[in-house]
Amino acid sequence: MTSEGDTVDAVVVGAGHNGLVAANLLADRGWSVRVLEASDAPGGAVRTEEITAPGWRSDLGSAFHPMGFVSPVLRGLELDAYGLAWRHAPAALAHVLPDDRGVLISRDLDVTAASLDRFAPGDGDAWRRLAEEWQRLRDPLMAAFLGPFPPVRDATTVLRTLGGPEALRLARRMLLPATRFGEEEFRGEGARVLVAGNALHTDLAVTQTASTAFGWLLSMLAQDVGFPVPSGGARSITDALVARLADRGGTVDCERPVTRVLVEGGRAVGVVDAAGGLVRARRAVLADVPAPVLYGDLVGHEHLPSRLVDDLARFQYDDAILKVDWALSSPIPWTAPEAREAGTIHLGGDVAGLVDFGADLAAGRVPKDPFMLLGQMTLSDPLRSPPGTESVWAYTHLPHSRTLTDAELDEQVRRMTAVIERHAPGFGDRVVARAVSRSGDLEARNPSLVRGALMAGTAQIHQMLVFRPTPGLGRPDTPVDGLFLAGATAHPAGAVHGAPGANAARAALARGGRLGPVYKAGIRAANRLVYGAPEVRAPSG
């Protein structure tokens, strides 16, 4: 039983940053927009709270935002007018090897090159060549990666910039495992482990195809723009998006979970919330939730082609995450000097150790030598904790395929702490308070982090581009007319850049525009080609 509610042009399900980006772009075109969020606050994984001790701010999900800093989507929204400002640590990234040697990426190319040359003379020049190439490629490449699929115009620009033969070599390079790329480009462990460690910001093992694409991308972004953080916390991105939307008449309703997308005559016409309230949508419903949740729980298989339902059964989430936040009385006493100036630290392995780490996860084992990403947030942004103190987090990957026992999770937290203590004796003496976020805790705060998966689906090549979230068009359009995927399960996947939300908004605007009937016919024909003709089936359950 539903109660009649409001009618707006578009309903957005989920107030993660992608949902808020989509809502803003629709509101810019004069659409009335309502965003419904299940949690007690907007932002999804882009939130900041005091979860360790009063005065120490911790980012609940995303923390460093190089993709957001260069994203054409977020830049185009001009969020600085709504209070968003960026801050940097003295250096972007350090990787501390098990023998306590450190290697550094600084925004100063000379500093980075000198750090690499200490491992192998000549690696600094090899890095310079990559950085120079990146400067020529950055804008068209980021536009191609983050824009709608297929990226015909921007890919053509990349092709013109490089020329055909070099573009072919770039494509080969991006498909390499990060380990192979390191062997081809560098002689020393320092440069190799930087790229491999950056690949592990995804769930890709460093021996897997295309792990270079992510390792190289993040390495070049770190060199170019650093790993910037929003002043005051990641929540500043969310606050700016919400304020901008409010200026344009859009609204965000929190603690209002959607339980059903209302489909009539093959078209999405609104949503029903947990209390039975109805919000009708004249033009579109956009969903910033994982595709399996949207299709399986909110839409229902009876409204979907059977081939899509079969494909969804094969959907693969990325690794689970175990995260620990600490409030420290003073900065971490690193023995490696590189770690004292970097906002982001990689800990827990040389290249061989990172290979073993990926093998453990692939086998469903909890790694005994956890690789960690660690953030020194006050070093990057003095607003994160009281003067002289430090707000720190670290996370590691766990198998997503099984639920771990409390004893296993407690042991992994002990191992993580031991790795830090080994490289920073006295770390434990500085701990004022600690908060452990297990996979279930992450999902409880943000239902889109299914069993702790941060990227809303694996970054492996079989679930990217036209395979994301399932084999199809690589677009936000769904087989249900007027329903669009606006979250990270859609191309181009996770990270805080707003592209899935922007692509969904553009598709909704095209469907609702003057040529909407033509657009609808084209998408319908393409979906029939991929999934077959729609079937009439009885409702499930």
Automatic annotation (TrEMBL):
Residues 19-499 form the Amine oxidase domain. It comes from the Bacteria. It holds the Pfam family Amino_oxidase. Interacts with COX5B; this interaction may contribute to localize PYROXD2 to the inner face of the inner mitochondrial membrane. Probable oxidoreductase that may play a role as regulator of mitochondrial function. This is Pyridine nucleotide-disulfide oxidoreductase domain-containing protein 2. The lineage of its organism: Bacteria, Bacillati, Actinomycetota, Actinomycetes, Pseudonocardiales.
